[in-house]
Amino acid sequence: MLVSRDQIARNYREVCTTVGPQVDVACVVKADAYGHGALEVARVVVAEGARWLAVSSVDEGVNLRCGGVRQPRVLVMGGFLDYEADALAEYDLTPTVHSFGQMHDLDRLAHAWGKPLPFHLKIDSGMGRLGTRASAPEILAEIHDVHHARLEGLMTHFASAADYTTTQTDDQLAYFHRICRELEQAGFNALRLHTSSTNAIGYGRKAGWHNMVRAGHALYGYVSPARGESPRQLLKVRPALTWKAKLLAVKDIPEGALVGYGGTFRAPRPMRIGILGAGYADGLFHRLSNRGKVIADGKLTSILGTISMDLTTIDLSHTTALGPGAEVTLLGNEGDVHLDAQQIARVAGTISYNILCSISARVRRVYV
Ligand SMILES: *Cc1c(COP(=O)(O)O)cnc(C)c1O
Questions:
Q1: What is the mean pLDDT of residues 46-68?
Q2: Of 11, 71, 266, 308, which one has the fewest beta carbons inside 10 Å?
Q3: How many helices and strands (H and E) does the chain possess?
Q4: Domain topology for 2-220
Q5: Which residues are catalytic?
Q6: Ligand 1: residues within 6 Å at CB?
C-alpha cells in the first residue's frame, strides 16, 4: 500500500485555505489515521504547520508522543478512564471531558501534578453519543469548583452534517451556541470552540467553523456525498492511498469450473483467472465476494467467487499481460480508471471510512 505524503499535505493545505487563517485545523489521526499511519500523517501535517492533532483514545495519544510527535497539542476526543488519567499529564495530552465526574477527576489530577491541565468540554447538542447534556447554569455551577484544571474549549459533534433533508445540524448548532453564549456572559470568552468535521467544512456550514475545525476524512481525500439539496462542495481533496496486491498465480479454467469456497462462482465460458495474495485478513471485505471489482492491466475486472482469508480470485480474461508477481490495484488509479473507497463502500454496503480503516496491519505501508 502506498501513501502519498504530498497528497496528504495538499489535502491539509486545502482544508486550511478553505476555512481561512482565523480557523485552526485539528488533524484527526485516530484509528491509525484511517489506516494511513498516524505517525507518518502526523509528521506530514506538523511539517505543514499543524498545531493540533486529534485522536480517539489516550493510547493513541501516547503512541504519537512516543513516536516523537512533541510540538502539537493532542486532543483525546474519546476522553479517558480512571486508570488512564496520569498518562494525560505525563504525555501532555488534552482530554475531551464529557461528564462532571471526569471534570473533577481531572481537577484533582491537575492539583496532584501541579499543572494547570487544559481540557475541552464536550456538549451533547443532539448527537446522543458522548458529551454532557447539562445546561449552561449547571455547567457554570460545576466549573465554579474546578480550580486546577482549565476549561480551554467547548466542542460538539454533528450527526448529519452532509444531510440537507433534515434540520438536525442547524438545531445542534443553535443548542451549542446558546450554551457558548451563556458561558461567555459568565466570563469564559476566550475559549476554543469547535464543532465541524469534514462534511461541515466541505458543505460550507461556516457558522460551525468558529476558531477550530476537526478534519479527518478530508485529509485522506474524501468528503461524504450529500443528501438532499446541498450547497456546492468546497474541498478539492483527493485520495492519498493506493492499495495494490500481487498475483500469486494466473491460470486458464474451462467452462463450468467452480471457483473458491462454496463453489459460488461457476465459469460461464473458458476464462483466465488470477489469484491475488490478499483477502479479508488484509481488509478486503468478504461482502465483495462475487460483487467487487479491482483494476488489472488498466481495466476494471470482477472478483470471482468467495473472498478467502488470504486469497482472492479475479477475472483476467481480458489480458495476457499479467503473470505471477504482477500487481493489481484494489484501491487507487491506473491511468484514468479509478477505484476509490466510496465506490468500494457502495458495493460492500458500507461507508468509505469503514473501507479505509479496515486495511489491516498486515498490509505494508510504503510512504512516497
Ligand atoms: C472522527 C471524528 C472527527 C473527524 O471526522 P471526519 O468526518 O473524518 O472529518 C471529528 N470529530 C470527532 C468527535 C470525531 O470522532
A1: 98
A2: 71
A3: 11, 19
A4: TIM Barrel (3.20.20)
A5: 30, 261
A6: 28, 30, 77, 157, 197-199, 214-218
